[in-house]
Design brief:
about 280 residues, alpha/beta, 11 helices, 14 strands, globular
Length: about 280
């Protein structure tokens, strides 16, 4: 069942456009939203939540038109950004008491549960929290009003590896509880750890919508010495890059037997790097 459906979403800025962005989210799954900086991830999320006015498009959440039922739908959505801004000197309990007034199904018991789970002291102020703890507090607020869909915009950006790992484990726990998560990030290893599916956006267009397994399974990585391959085989290479000892490129899995080189399984990061490199070369 799709909990969120986006159809032909468009947004035009000087020098950049979202173009017919369409995708759906599977309920109870974590979907990673990847793409290089400026590809359109944050703009897409902003349009979904009507924080940015889309030029055109249709958004359906929980089976209802977002434009017709925005207030009702937002009661069940939690939004968390890595760029969290709270009143820095207000205590967390004060921020929570103000936030709860906006939600008809605020659950104090759930709030206590998540504050304890995330090891948050409500007597502290945001200025006393690390970046990771601020994200956890945002999650606690979102989950305390029984959000079923979590939209996370770069929530692990700037966090140290230990804090990122803690948050990713939390995301897996929330998935176990039946939450649906759309997780925008450029740290692809985070998605290797926790995501089921990916959306890949390039230059304002959706380039892939797939399970991670199916996406990376289409490709292999090969390494070789510079200028060692005949011209007819070089046409099979995707996004050549240099290494310390030579060259590296992506190839389609179906071409592995043609190249005559030892090929390795690709991961999400290598797929994105080489596909973007190829896209840059084609654009020139």
């Amino acid at each position: 069942m799709s909990i969120l459906e986006v159809r032909k979403l468009n947004k035009t800025y000087p020098g950049f456009s979202l173009s017919d962005v369409s995708f759906s989210l599977e309920e109870g799954k974590i979907t990673g939203f990847i793409g290089r900086n400026g590809a359109g991830k944050s703009t897409t999320l902003g349009c979904i939540l009507n924080l940015i006015a889309a030029s055109s498009g249709e958004i359906t959440v929980f089976g209802k038109s977002f434009s017709d039922s925005e207030a009702e739908i937002k009661q069940k959505i939690g939004y968390v950004s890595g760029a969290v801004n709270f009143y820095p000197k207000k205590k967390l309990r004060t921020i929570a008491s103000v936030t709860k007034e906006f939600y008809g199904e605020w659950d104090n018991e759930a709030y206590r549960k998540y504050m304890k789970l995330f090891s948050l002291d409500e007597n502290k102020t945001p200025s006393a929290l690390s970046a990771g703890m601020k994200v956890k507090f945002s999650l606690a607020l979102a989950l305390s009003h029984k959000a079923q869909l979590l939209i996370l915009d770069e929530p692990t950006s700037g966090l140290d590896p230990v804090s990122r790992d803690e948050l990713l484990e939390i995301f897996l726990t929330l998935k176990d509880e039946g939450k649906t998560i759309l997780f925008s990030t450029h740290i692809t290893s985070d998605l290797d750890f926790c995501a089921d599916n990916i959306l890949y956006i390039r230059n304002g267009k959706i380039a892939a919508e797939s399970t991670i397994t199916d996406f990376v399974g289409k490709y292999r990585l090969v390494e070789y010495e510079k200028d060692s391959l005949p011209a007819e085989l070089k046409t099979k290479l995707i996004g050549e890059t240099r290494t310390k000892s030579g060259m590296r490129a992506l190839i389609k899995a179906e071409d592995e037997s043609l190249i005559g080189l030892t090929a390795e399984k690709a991961d999400l990061e290598s797929c994105m790097v080489h596909l973007e490199k190829e896209g840059d070369a084609n654009a020139r």
